[in-house]
Amino acid sequence: MIRFPRQSEAIMTRIQHLLAGAAIALTVGLAASPSMAGRDRFVVDLVNEPSSLDPQVQWNPDSYYVYRNIFDNLVTRDDKGALAPEIATAWKQVSDTEMEFTIRDDVTFHDGKKLTPEDVVFSVKRITDPKFGSPQLGQFNKITDAVATGPNTVKLVTDGAYPALLAQLVKLSIVPKHVVEAVGKDAFNAKPVGSGPYVFADWSRGVAVTLKRNDKYWGKKAPFPEVAFRAVPDASTRVANLQAGSSDLGVSLDSDLAAQIKSSPKAKPLSVLTERVAYLRLNPSKPPFDKGDIRRAVAMAIDKEALVQGILGGYDKAVPEMLTPAHFGWVEGVEAPAFDPKKAKQIVEAAGPAGQQEIELSTAPVFDQRIVQAVQQMLADVGLNVKINMSDMASYLKRAQSGPESTPALSYGRWSCACQDADGVLFPLMHNSSGWSAYRNTTTDKLLEAARATLNQDNRMAAYKQVHEIIAKEVPLIPLYQSAIIYGAAKPLVWQPTPNESMFLNRMDWKE
């Protein structure tokens, strides 16, 4: 039987009433305004304003939604999640440490200059230069060199075999060497030049980023002549804008808001299971989680199905491991500790004072606090004394990646590498070299190192299977569910969201 936490039921009821009221009020206010949205001017409501439009400076959803349409990447993924050509039309493994790419010869940047192998080399060396200081460096630092080997070929060299190379290169945007060198980092961010399906037009800070369709684009043309990305932090306002017809797409809705627009004459929900995993991270170096029994008690206290069905509306999917079926490295049959609150309570009681001490549960406003509060209640039900500590996202992230000494005893998070490879999830969260890891286990370290140092997929899968089993036994992490992302869309919009949370405007259509 699915158990619905008493506290979370009350919270859900209050939230539903508040959001419903806010949405009605905002819809009334906005409906009187003339519509600015539609096929000619497509309007997207983001949560926040982009922090950067330079694709090699920042990695966050609101920035990515915008700049991914300005730039092309070396490779991409199709709507089914398979690796697909983009600027590179083909690739081959020359040796364990070398891969050669064939580069398209029919691509021009938005200023009319041709994209060449030198631009690819420049882009790789720019993002892998520690002095450049890209937050994405850890995703590409296995690349040691990039060389133009011919008029349309580029060779990448890695530090040892690196099986996740192509998966990571999905995120490598190609920037124009001549522009970046001429104007510098800050000016390029303020007025980016790419080769993608949309051309940067304007960035009115605090208002919107506007893009114009690139009618000379080498690939599939986009259906919208102009696109405006606006920052609308309040989710109920994003829904109200859709219902009023003043926007065409709104990101990051929850299940309650999605339910509001299911019967709307102007809007509809669109959702997909992503590669993002919601999880609890325990710090085994801090009491009471220095005791394995207490960590396992936490795992047994969490009713994942109640979270998914009772709070998230069934959009998300409970998982037993710190990956999703969208990742390479997902292993069928992994068994996580079963939901058993009675046994969990017995363990906590047997622990005596260790089970009674106050435990900080770290969170940030960007996360679904209905889930955080439900987790707190579930742990309280087995006798654990958990206090929620809300901090701004910057402070949360700083502590989360500061190693065992500064990492909270317990924290809620959602992880995505946007690469769909286990190396991008398990290595940073579990390996002792990563600031994100609060776990120390030499066996796990060796397995993760072996999995990222061989091109043999069977050997990689065998290593990841052992890592999953260690996590299930030792419980440094508790995987909760594969997160769904829910968008609100105008009725005429035809679009299939993808697991890697990309918003490819030229893969959309508009049917009245």
Automatic annotation (TrEMBL):
The name this protein goes by in its record: ABC transporter substrate-binding protein
Recite the lineage of the species: Bacteria, Pseudomonadati, Pseudomonadota, Alphaproteobacteria, Hyphomicrobiales
Going by the UniProt record, its keywords in alphabetical order are: Signal
What GO molecular functions are on record for this protein?
peptide transmembrane transporter activity
GO cellular component terms attached to this protein's record: ATP-binding cassette (ABC) transporter complex; outer membrane-bounded periplasmic space
Biological source species: Alsobacter metallidurans
Instruction: Name the Gene Ontology biological process terms.
Output: peptide transport
Top-rank taxon of the source lineage equals: Bacteria
- Which family is this protein grouped under? Belongs to the bacterial solute-binding protein 5 family.
